[in-house]
Specification:
Distance between the termini: 26 Å
Helix content: 25-40%
Oligomer: single chain
Largest sheet: 7 strands, mixed
Order of helices and strands: EEHEHEHEHHHHHEHEHH
Shape: globular
Number of domains: 1
CATH superfamily: Alpha/Beta hydrolase fold, catalytic domain
Number of strands: 7
CATH class: Alpha Beta
Number of helices: 11
Structural class: alpha/beta
C-alpha cells in the first residue's frame, strides 16, 4: 500500500476533497502503473495504490488453495485496505481486473464505497478461456532488457505499462497464476454484483475494447446511477492510450456531487 497524499488548502493543511481515492490495477499490472494519473487525482482526494495479491514480485507467496485466486479473495483484501485507510467511503478507480474488484467490493461492502470508475471491464466473459494464452506467454523472454524491448513486443502503450510493472525487466509474478485468475471469468458472470451497486459510477469503454460487445452499455442501462463513455480509437489501457480524454471524464465525474 502506498499513500500518495492529497489536496491541501491555502494554509497548507489537508483538504478532504472527495475522500480517499484507491487505484486498482489490471491483471499483470501493479500500483505504480498509475503514476501518470496520480498527480492530477491528488487534487481531488487522498490517493492510494497497492499491488494486488500475486502481483507483488517474483518471490510472492503462491496460492495455497484454489479459492485464493477467486474474486472474493481480492474483494476481501480490498475491504481490509479500506478499513486500514479509515477515512470514510472511498472512490474506487479500477482498470480491467481492478474494475471488477471495485464493483464487487461496492456490492459486498456498500458502506465503504462512495463512487466507482470502471475502465474496460464487463460482467460476463463466460465461454472464453485463458488456456490459449500459453503459446503467447511461452514467447516471452525471461527478462526484458529495456522499456524499448517491451514496447517492441507489446506496443508503445502496453509495453510501457508492462515494463513499469516488472522488476528490472523481470516478471513480478507467475504467468500461470495470472492465467488461473482470469480463467475464473470464463466460468461465471458478475451481473448480480453489478446490479447490487448503488453508488455513482463512470463506465469507460475502450474503442478497441476487450469486453464482449454491448455489455458495458448494458451495464449503464441497468443502473440509473451509472454513466457511459466510449473512447474511440483507444485500446484497453484507456487511461494511458487516451490520457486527456480519460482525465477530462474522470475529473468531471469527481466534480459532480457524490452521494
Amino acid at each position: 500500500m502506498r499513500d500518495h497524499g492529497g489536496p491541501v488548502g491555502a494554509d497548507g493543511q489537508p483538504v478532504r476533497g472527495v475522500g480517499p481515492i484507491v487505484l486498482l490495477h489490471g491483471l499483470m499490472g501493479r500500483g505504480r502503473t498509475w503514476r501518470r494519473q496520480i498527480p492530477w487525482l491528488r487534487r481531488h482526494g487522498r490517493v492510494f495504490t497497492y499491488d494486488a495479491a500475486f502481483h507483488t514480485g517474483a518471490d510472492a507467496v503462491p496460492p495455497q488453495a484454489p479459492d485464493e485466486l477467486g474474486t472474493e479473495r481480492f474483494v476481501a483484501d480490498l475491504a481490509e485496505i479500506l478499513v486500514w485507510i479509515d477515512q470514510g467511503p472511498a472512490v474506487l478507480v479500477g482498470h480491467s481486473m481492478g474494475a471488477l474488484h471495485a464493483w464487487c467490493t461496492a456490492a459486498a461492502y456498500p458502506e465503504m464505497v462512495s463512487a466507482l470508475v470502471i475502465e474496460d471491464m464487463a460482467p460476463d466473459f463466460r465461454g472464453q478461456t485463458t488456456r490459449n494464452w500459453t503459446p503467447w506467454f511461452d514467447s516471452w523472454p525471461d527478462r526484458f532488457t529495456s522499456m524499448a524491448h517491451a514496447q517492441e513486443m507489446f506496443g508503445a502503450v502496453a509495453g510501457r505499462y508492462f515494463y513499469e510493472a516488472f522488476d528490472d525487466g523481470r516478471l513480478h509474478g507467475s504467468l500461470s497464476i495470472w492465467t488461473d485468475i482470469a480463467e475464473e471469468w470464463g466460468g461465471r458472470d458478475f451481473w448480480d454484483e453489478w446490479t447490487a451497486v448503488r453508488v455513482p459510477s463512470l463506465v469507460i469503454e475502450a474503442g478497441f475494447t476487450v469486453t464482449p460487445p454491448g455489455q458495458m452499455r448494458t451495464m449503464c442501462s441497468t443502473n440509473r446511477r451509472a454513466q457511459y463513455l466510449q473512447v474511440p480509437g483507444a485500446g484497453h489501457l484507456v487511461h494511458d492510450d487516451a490520457p486527456d480524454v480519460y482525465r477530462g471524464a474522470v475529473e468531471a465525474f469527481l466534480a459532480a456531487p457524490i452521494g
